[in-house]
Amino acid sequence: MINYFKLCFFSTCLCLFTSTMAAENDDLTSVVIVTGPYPPAINEADEDKGYVSRLVADAFALEGIKVSFIFVPWARGLRMVRLGHEACIMYYGKTPGRVKSFIFSEPLFEEEWLFFHLRSTDVKWQKLTDLSRYIIGATLSYTYSEEFHKLADEKELSVHWVARDKQNWQLLMSGRIDLFPSVKTGWHQLRNLYSEAAIKQVTTHPKPLKSQLNYLLCSKDHPNAEYFRDKFNQGFTKLKKLRSISYYIPDSNGETWPIESN
Question: Cβ atoms within 10 A of the Cβ of 174, count?
Fold first, then answer.
């Protein structure tokens, strides 16, 4: 009987010790952010890792949290964070599927998606089905619009999916696709691939495919995800009072910090 109680006492102490050690080792002063290449907004080659990365790091820093970034392919990164291997990933728009797996920060930036095309291609459209006569390039894991994905799935639009933006720019410049939806950073990507003379062949249609708010996403399966989301939001609120959006995007043309409409 004495040995039994000794064993129970030892087991209880061990559990308490283990729990205490786990709590002490649960570092809430640093966070790993998973991301992928999206230059110049997110760029592993830059010292600050791009202006989106700088904003996220600055917001966390105001709450005393140090940020490190892991660069992986986009689809792999989503899976890593969805499974709770890391707490956060940036930077994505909201979709019904992502809302099931992630909690979202306050919106970081708003981006307008435009159709890039060669000047030699006459593009006219008012509704998406008007684009059925064109071959459209698209990049896997990107959020275009619910209607765009629906029409692509139903073969109402001729969409050619590839893994990376670079492939779509090559297809566009060679005339193998007619349209490629991208944001303002698309011009940066083109300049890294082609000469200014070649880029003069390219233009954008003025009608946007959509405007999209992008967020820091935190995993519902990571124990500290909600803590880091709340800390980011608190730091971001402070940051927006200190700096304008032009501090991060010099060519923002007077844009203001985005507000999510309910």
Answer: 9
Summarize pLDDT for 194-235 with one digit per residue, the tens.
999 999 999 999 999 999 899 999 999 999 999 999 999 999
Q: Is residue 4 part of a domain?
A: no
Distances (CA, A) of 229 to 65, 155, 202, 206, 257: 12, 38, 39, 35, 18
Q: Is 80 exceeded by the pLDDT of residue 11?
A: no
Q: 220: domain range?
A: 27-110+213-247
What would the pLDDT profile of 22-49 be if each residue is shown by its tens digit? 333 468 999 999 999 888 899 999 999 9
- The tokens describing 228, both together, are 């880091």
Provide the CB-side half-sphere exposure for 219 (13 A, CA). 21
Nearest CA to 86 among 74, 73, 69, 99?
69
Do 107 and 193 contact (CB within 8 A), yes or no?
no
Which residue, among 160, 163, 200, 165, has the nearest Cα to 183 in the 3D structure?
A: 165
Assigned domain for 219 exists? yes
Q: 219 CB contacts (<8 Å, ≥6 apart)? A: 81, 82, 83, 84, 86, 87, 88, 89, 101, 102, 103, 225
- What is the tally of structural domains in the chain? 2
Predicted pLDDT of residue 262: 59
User: How far apart, in whole angstroms, are the C-alpha atoms of residue 15 and residue 79?
Assistant: 32
Among 185, 211, 237, give the residue marking a domain's end. Answer: 211
Please indicate, yes or no, if residue 117 is contained in any of the structural domains.
Answer: yes
CATH of the domain at 160: 3.40.190.10
